[in-house]
Amino acid sequence: MEQPYTIYEQQMKAKLKRWEIRLQKQPNLIERASKSVQNRINQVIPEKIHNTITATVKGIVQTTLFGIHYMPATEPLKGVSMADRDAKAEELLSLYKKIAAAEGAGAGAGGILLGLADFPILIGIKLKFLFELAHIYGYSTKDYRERLFILYVFQLAFSSSKKKPALLHTIKNWPAISQNFPPAADYANQVNWLQLQQEYRDTIDFRKMLQLIPGIGAVVGAWANFGLLEELGVAGMNCYRLRNLQDKAAKGDSPAPVSPKSQN
Hints:
This protein is mainly α. The chain has helices at 7-23, 29-44, 47-66, 82-109, 112-136, 144-157, 164-172, 174-178, 184-188, 193-210, 217-250. Helix content is 72%, strand content 0%. The longest helix has 34 residues, at 217-250. Residues 107-116, 209-217 and 253-264 have low confidence and may be disordered.
């Protein structure tokens, strides 16, 4: 017997549609101008520095995604309504925003050296949040494909408008796409780590650079990190809501969702 979507799930479907439309909008004039400036800055930065930052990001992300350090101790939640999952996710996000804000304030107050050290620490905080979020929505991070999904969510939250539609396409087609992934070690070699770190850095650059200014660093550091966790929380919760609804449809509980847009 078919079990239709609950009223709450129907509300979330409508909310997700609006979110998808916003993600797939073409970048506005200000965003295009900002990206153009960032691209010119990237061109004048010595390749050695790019390589160092890329290696740092790659090392942090690979250690997180292909190790066991960040795996939650608790098992993924099963048999829980989406409303209850969302409530737990909001509590988790509130906690991690406070953690990130406190870390950002401390780094901002410490000047340039601590401000630079904040870069890898913040990535770790974000990835830890996503690992715990996956378990709230019922997905086990023991499966390396779920850890790769986390990487796509991370990129969706911190990539340019131009890259978001293709990332959203992958996320919406995850069950089919993930079945074709090579072993974890092989997949790690296929990630464009330079592009990932540049997109991430460009997204947070302005806020994080202000953090290095003496006198206002602590306030800006807290504000920047709080806002970045909020953006990640929205992206993460919506991605897992999409998957929960798709999983329900795949079980025959309701009509299958509309096919996602093709990649650009």
